[in-house]
């Protein structure tokens, strides 16, 4: 095995071990006693369920990641990448279509392997804890729609990237960067009106006290309300959430119907104030800018390593190709991606604190705190996650830290 193979194998091992250690620490940190802050919201049985939910999901996650790593290593060292390459090349489809077929088959293979785990998670674990509302028909249709979107949107993008690196030499990475950036912005723009409605119904929030209170708050903070929508989240799960999506005239705030059902008007306004805080603090634009920069760096490095013979030898390939190089470089890039992911999680947690502060200083603290407590209970959140697990995996700060920060705000 050459240096490329050693780096990739070491990265896979380190990533697996770090996440395993974090999972084990997280389960050990489960507090047997209910934190005093939540005594008014949780009862002992609900708290016990939240801890059991964390344990079950953690064990299942360890099983899933172990299986995925084992399959990858077996496929790799059995020469599977080269075996598939020889089959696809024999079809004589041309450089671009061969690449699409090769990558498409790998994605389909991974999707099929992950299907039993997805079914078990949805219809056994989520069902056991009372969350699942997904019917088999909805599950299948979601999968079909997801694959269809992947073909319709991802296919042309992949073809373009393959074409740039196949037929253009020196500045291929710049063209690919530009194409992916344009594609990302385009999807962000059309997602609220064209993509997301394929999976959920979005109805404008009806006139009434809640809409009036939201409008009054939006006027107070000088936020133009293009659209507030209620999403039928209960179609798939009883969990609650709210999110901000799109930009320009297509930006909208979506509230799960389960969120509206379980929270008071003041709590809902506080949740919306948090989402508006993300917009006011320019978190969405900042995240997008960082993502675009990351993509540029990735394509620049890809252009450096794409034609390295050793990268292909590490996977026992008989020949070089752009499409296989994309797969192998993605694995070589994993150490950088791992570091960037931890950094982005840190920034995301900072943004959540800022949005909480915005909401609590421009609206009210107590409704925001009550909303966080109810969300934690309704979603059976882990109230005492281990700091190392938070460091690796959390895009939001633990709820107790958020509540303490809100109390200090202003």
UniProtKB/TrEMBL annotation:
Zn(2+) binds at residues 274, 278, 352. It holds the Pfam family Peptidase_M48. The keyword Zinc applies. Its cofactor is Zn(2+). CDD domains: M48A_Zmpste24p_like. The keyword Zinc applies. GO terms for biological process: CAAX-box protein processing. The chain crosses the membrane at residues 6-25, 60-79, 99-125, 146-168, 174-195, 288-310, 322-343. Binds 1 zinc ion per subunit. InterPro entries: CAXX_Prtase_1 (IPR027057), Peptidase_M48 (IPR001915), Peptidase_M48_N (IPR032456). Keywords: Endoplasmic reticulum, Hydrolase, Membrane, Metal-binding, Metalloprotease, Protease, Transmembrane, Transmembrane helix, Zinc. This is M48 family metallopeptidase. It comes from Halalkalibaculum roseum.
């Amino acid at each position: 095995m050459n240096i490329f193979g050693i780096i990739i194998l070491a990265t896979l091992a380190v990533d697996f071990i770090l996440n395993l250690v974090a999972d084990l620490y997280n389960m050990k940190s489960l507090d047997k006693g209910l934190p005093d802050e939540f005594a008014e919201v949780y009862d002992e049985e609900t708290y016990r369920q939240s801890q059991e939910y964390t344990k079950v999901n953690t064990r299942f996650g360890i099983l899933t990641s172990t299986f995925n790593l084992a399959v990858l290593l077996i496929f790799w060292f059995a020469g599977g990448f080269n075996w598939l390459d020889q089959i696809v090349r024999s079809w004589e489809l041309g450089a671009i279509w061969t690449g699409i077929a090769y990558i498409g088959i790998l994605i389909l293979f991974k999707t099929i392997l992950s299907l039993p785990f997805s079914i078990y998670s949805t219809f056994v674990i989520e069902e056991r804890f009372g969350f699942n509302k997904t019917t088999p028909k909805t599950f299948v249709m979601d999968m079909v729609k997801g694959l269809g979107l992947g073909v319709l949107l991802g296919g042309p993008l992949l073809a373009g990237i393959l074409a740039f690196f196949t037929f253009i030499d020196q500045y291929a990475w710049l063209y690919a960067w530009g194409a992916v950036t344009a594609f990302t912005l385009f999807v962000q723009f059309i997602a609220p009106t064209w993509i997301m409605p394929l999976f959920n119904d979005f109805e404008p929030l009806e006139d009434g006290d809640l809409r009036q209170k939201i409008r009054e708050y939006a006027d107070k903070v000088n936020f133009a309300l293009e659209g507030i929508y209620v999403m039928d989240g209960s179609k798939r799960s009883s969990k609650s959430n709210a999110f901000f999506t799109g930009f320009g005239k297509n930006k909208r705030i979506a509230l799960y119907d389960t969120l509206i059902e379980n929270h008071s008007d003041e709590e809902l306004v506080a949740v919306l104030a948090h989402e508006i805080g993300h917009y006011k603090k320019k978190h969405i634009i900042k995240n997008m800018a960082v993502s675009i920069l990351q993509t540029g760096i990735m394509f620049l490095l890809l252009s450096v390593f794409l034609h390295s013979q050793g990268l292909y030898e590490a996977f026992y390939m008989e020949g070089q190709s752009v499409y296989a190089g994309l797969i192998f470089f993605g694995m070589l890039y994993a150490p950088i991606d791992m570091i960037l992911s931890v950094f982005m999680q840190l920034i995301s947690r900072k943004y959540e604190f800022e949005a909480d502060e915005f909401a609590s200083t421009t609206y009210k603290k107590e409704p925001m705190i009550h909303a966080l407590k109810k969300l934690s209970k309704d979603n059976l959140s882990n109230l005492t996650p281990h700091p190392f697990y938070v460091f690796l995996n959390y895009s939001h700060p633990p709820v107790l830290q958020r509540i303490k920060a809100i109390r200090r705000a202003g």
